[in-house]
Specification:
Bound molecules: pyridoxal-5'-phosphate
CATH class of the largest domain: Alpha Beta
Number of helices: 16
Strand order of the largest sheet: 2-8-7-6-5-3-4
Order of helices and strands: HHEHHEHEHHEHEHEHHEEHHHEHEEEH
Distance between the termini: 36 Å
CATH architecture of the largest domain: 3-Layer(aba) Sandwich
Largest sheet: 7 strands, mixed
Length: 379
Amino acid sequence: MRGRFAPKGMTGVEAQLGPGEAAGAAAMRREREERVIDLRSDTVTRPSEEMRRAMANAEVGDDVYGEDPTVNRLEQRAAELFARPAALFVPTGTMGNQIAIHLHTRPGQEILCESRAHIYNYEMAMPGAFSGCLIRPVLTADGVLTWPALAPALSLEAPYHRARTGLIVVENTLNMAGGIVTPPPVAAEICRRARDLGIPVHLDGARIFNAATTLRRPVEELARGFDSVMFCLSKGLGAPVGSMLIGDEEFIHRARIARKMLGGGMRQAGILAAAGLVALEKGPARLAEDHANAAFLAAGLANLPRAELDPGRVQSNIVIFGVAKTGEPAAKFVEKLAARNVLAGAAGPDSVRLVTHLDVSRQQCQAALEALQALLARD
Ligand SMILES: Cc1ncc(COP(=O)(O)O)c(C=O)c1O
């Protein structure tokens, strides 16, 4: 861990050593870091050399004045890819989602989403705190939110008892269901029925490029019909920072104001947008490799008696499996795995999540599987 006041690239201890000793300690630490296989998330990727060069050479201006040419190019390119009029660069996916929620709803309304959705579980209660809305989670068995599942949860009349439904949010892929992909006809039906009722629909497409890879369809097609779309540059696409919010001109104009309210008006943000542009051009083509690695891990885990998962349900770059048969909580399992240099995350009290990404190779997945085998082989 880097110390708070240590020079960049050194730990606190390294900073107190002489130059030769510090170099040796730093080399050992790098070697240790390289041995660690980090499957906690696809957010852990580090920028490529190409990204770093693009960042160093980025043409910049003050983006709050709309004068950063690299940010403008990124926004234009994202809008183009989704065949929409406009896009906005935001620091995080959470900010993109929360701006969309804020603009689509009014205080005192309900938002419907799948029970495992990021906006419900991992965005710090912001729909309540920032937009005055309540989330009504919809349970599904497999993580695919359908119109028949949503319909009974809608609130359209009864103005004196239950708040009206103000927004539907679809997360594709659905992260905590194991990267489950929404079939295009299912999403199309939600958008069509919601439009008939005057309810906007937002797409949390943090990993929409993964869904596009699985379905072999362009993102533009998967996002069609949604009133707004958020996707992340900083996950499987490999950028260090940043997400995009997409919609029509009026929506993005209002989103720009909301971004400023949240303190997300970044100045010479072209430094970050330059990496985002590389991610957008180079990232999507290699996601199939991550999916193949996830399928490889899932197939290996399925052979282990103390792991519980259906490898047929692994559709993208996320593998969630049960560890109840080990008799220990997931947190303990994750700890033991870390001791074997494989980092994973607890996805629930007895389930564990592995996420493949550009910084883990097939060889490392093979090594991770060997560590998993050691913990899950015995019955
Ligand atoms: C589905 C989904 N939506 C939104 C986000 C939020 O992205 P960020 O971490 O950039 O705020 C995440 C992050 O993991 C996510 O998985």
